[in-house]
Automatic annotation (TrEMBL):
Enzyme class: hydrolase
Keywords assigned by UniProt, alphabetized: Hydrolase
A Pfam family this chain is assigned to: MazG
Enzyme Commission number, as recorded: 3.6.1.9
Any GO molecular function: nucleoside triphosphate diphosphatase activity
Residue intervals of the NTP pyrophosphohydrolase MazG-like domain: 164-239
Name recorded for this polypeptide: Nucleoside triphosphate pyrophosphohydrolase
Highest taxon listed in the record's lineage: Bacteria
Protein species of origin: Streptomyces caeni
Length: 344
């Protein structure tokens, strides 16, 4: 099979024919172009090299009569034959220097490409030039569209997923968030990727449920649009005229714009009281310190007030008390296992 090399236009061009040609036949090896497209890009939006190849081809073939690109190709004046030739038939169709473009199906053309590779490897067939030409490309984040489509189908067809509510899923969001934190602290990259996916699933699942609300529906696009607007507004040093050269200045921008947005009357507003106690205490201390307030710790008896003082001290020293306690807890777990192993 012909070797391929990247071109500047994003397509892949042929380096050389697999079998050296001689005589009159060497003048016209022909050309096969395998045209691939992404279902994540609107049909008809093809690259300029793809349109050039299609308009310059002697024949255009497609095995899938329902291929979403076909109506747009025909509208552009391109004759598309609904055919699924064998590798040998495709090679023969290139005799006389003809160019044949194959519009690949969604699954690609493994039967055809395997057959062409077999012919080229046999050394008995003079192969035409072979070119893989991506006609449309996935942009970063394109697979999120797949996730939305899969979630739509699951919500419609799965007996369990179709009955879920925001309230019923809430506990899973908390669990997945903790598992994500655990993967981060363990430094496990594979686990981190998986847990990020699980957290993302919760977001998409809740957004899909929200579409069905009769009074105030919203979609995943509304969710994404909202966070995009928020990020742009809270980063004037990136998207606006302000400047920030240190993380502290960035945080100041963030807090200032957030205060204007929320119009809060207290630094405690927006702090979820249902979060773990050490994290709650540290968050309150952070708000107090950032606002420059002088707030003495409440005096009281019991372990709760002692833990509060420890959490505030940790935040002042730049230590996450929850993470510190989890690290100590893991050390305690290891000590327990060591004793258990010794007992065995």
């Amino acid at each position: 099979m012909n070797a391929t090399s990247p071109r500047g236009d994003g397509s892949y061009g042929t380096a050389a024919s697999a079998v050296p040609a001689s005589g009159a036949a060497a003048a016209a090896p022909g050309r096969i172009v395998l045209l691939t497209t992404s279902h994540r890009v609107a049909p008809g939006l093809l690259s300029w090299p793809a349109w050039q190849a299609l308009h310059g081809a002697d024949r255009v073939l497609c095995a899938d009569g329902a291929h979403p690109q076909l109506p747009y190709l025909r509208e552009a004046g391109i004759t598309v034959e609904e055919a699924a030739p064998t590798a040998r038939e495709l090679v023969d169709a290139c005799d006389g220097g003809r160019t044949v473009v194959v519009v690949a199906t969604g699954e690609g053309e493994p039967r055809l490409t395997d057959g062409l590779a077999g012919l080229a490897g046999s050394g008995r067939v003079r192969m035409p030039e072979l070119e893989l030409l991506p006609a449309s490309y996935d942009l970063p984040g394109a697979r999120l569209l797949d996730l939305v489509q899969v979630m739509d189908r699951i919500r419609a067809e799965c007996p369990w997923s179709s009955r879920q509510t925001h309230e019923g899923l809430a506990k899973y969001g908390i669990e997945e968030a903790y598992e994500l934190v655990e993967a981060i602290e363990a430094g496990d990259r594979d686990e981190l990727r998986e847990e990020l996916g699980d957290v993302l699933l919760q977001v998409v699942f809740h957004a899909r449920i929200a579409e069905e609300d009769p009074d105030a529906p919203f979609s995943v696009d509304d969710v994404a649009g909202g966070i995009v607007t928020k990020l742009i507004h809270r980063h004037p040093h990136v998207f606006g005229d302000e400047t920030a050269t240190t993380p502290e200045e960035v945080k100041e921008h963030w807090l200032r714009t957030k205060a204007v947005e929320k119009q809060r009357t207290s630094v405690t507003e927006g702090i979820p009281l249902g979060q773990p106690g050490l994290a709650l205490a540290a968050k309150l201390a952070s708000r107090v310190r950032t606002a420059g307030l002088d707030v003495p710790l409440p005096r009281g008896e019991g372990i709760g007030y002692e833990l509060l003082a420890l959490a505030v001290r940790a935040e002042t020293e730049g230590v996450d008390p929850e993470a510190a306690l989890r690290a100590a807890g893991r050390a305690y777990r290891d000590a327990i296992r060591a004793v258990e192993s010794g007992a065995e």
